[in-house]
Amino acid sequence: MATTSKIHLLSSDGGEFHVPGLTVESAVKASEILQENHEIHHIFFNQKGFHNHIVHHILTAFALGASPESLQIHYDNNKNYQRPPEPLDPGVVKELHDPTLYMKYLGNERYYRDYVSFFKGEIDKKGYEEVINEYVLKGDERADDMLARMFSSIAHPIIHFGFGVEFKQPAIIAEGLAEAAVHKNYILEYFHRAESQAKSSKSTTKSIVSLLDEIRANKRLSSAGRFTDWNTLRDGVLARAQNDMLDYASQWTASPDTLEERTAEMTNAVAYYGGGAQHPPKQIKFDFNFIHYINASIFFTSFLKQPWISPENKVRLLEWKVRLDLAVYAAQGSPEPLLDLISRYKPKKQPSSGDQWTAIFQRANEVEDDGHANKLVRALAHGEMICKPYEENEKFRITGKMWQQLGNMAIDSVEDTGNHWVRGAGFDEAWEKFDDRPAAHL
Q: What is the pLDDT of residues 340-368, one digit of tens each?
């Protein structure tokens, strides 16, 4: 049984999307790896806030059928550059029980281990469901602050937290909560203003893809992020064009009776702009920022299935996610998604037999990286599954075989030469270091 002190995966539970035939041996190996990571590694591997992705990588590889040997290779390739957490300070852990002092330590990675210990203790007493409702979803000042931090730093905290919920691992949930606590919070004002504006608006909600089109046409907004910005969301869109952004973000809403369709719409939209943001004749490359919002999409299906999350909070989680998706699209220069390129894409490898996804998953489990690639193809395959009922709906621009096309594009791109990802797909400068594709593949 999984507890706050023990990570315990089951071959019978591969999360929201997994291949058939997960083995007990792989479940045991993945559990051992994640247990060690939990005990000896910080959530950041350096002082710049670069993230430890071992949990994401190993859980995704396990769900995609990686062998114990493959799981160990992935861990060995990524554990050597990790760093240990700061020493535990029992005095800080004690102070975190005071709501006013709890806020004092937020945003400081030095206290990551203290927050992990604190949340483990809270989960042991109350269960992770009650802890999440109290510290993230309650709607008071402390919870809203934490919820906004969940979406900070290209959604890393909510991805980590989401894996914990998806795989029912209290220790990983505690890590995700602590990760959110030590991130900076620069987007709460945006979320609150968008929420307030949406509530006061009398206009009907628009589709995500129509809002993407409108954002791209607004030159003040689509040029607010600059290639030279360290953070194009914070320093670009939110600093230079927040009012414009709010006009669009407030025009998308959900309701308890539309949650499943709206979650599928969100998933489809991020796959559409994330996969379609290409720059012919340059190599196929996915934008590093955009892939995180594709990768995060799978957890919102998981959130829908949790009976302890109220319908109102499920709506709120999804609305905040979409409003961030829209802002991130604007921040990267609002590149026009090339739907025809996805449809016409010629995969570099065609499996001699069997399902294309199976071959894509096998290749993803062989990529030497930190887990971004296998998360991406798993999220795309999951997107195909949940969007299938809505293929006749004009809000859904990725349909049918386009999902497999995106999967092939993703795995081909990371196996190709050059960097795995482009950073700033809407900026010409970002593509200068990449090669042109051969004419036969255009």
A: 999 999 999 987 667 899 999 999 999 99
DSSP 184: -
What distance in Å separates the CA atoms of residue 388 and residue 398, rounded to the nearest whole number? 10
- 327-343 confidence digits (pLDDT tens): 999 999 999 999 999 99
| CB distance 330 to 277 below 8 Å | no
Look up tokens 């379609």; give the residue.
276
Q: Smallest Cα–Cα separation from 372: which of 430, 434, 298, 295?
A: 295
| pTM across the whole model | 0.97
Distance CA(49)–CA(190), nearest Å, equals: 22
> Does residue 442 have a pLDDT over 70?
no
Exposure pattern of 336-372 as b/e (b: 16+ CB <10 Å)? Answer: ebbeebbeebebeeeeeeeebbebbbbbbbebebbbb
Which residues touch 85 (CB under 8 Å, ≥6 apart)? 41, 42, 43, 112, 113, 116
Question: Please, what sign has the CA dihedral across residues 399, 281, 350, 60?
Answer: negative
In the block, residue with structure tokens 């969007």: 387
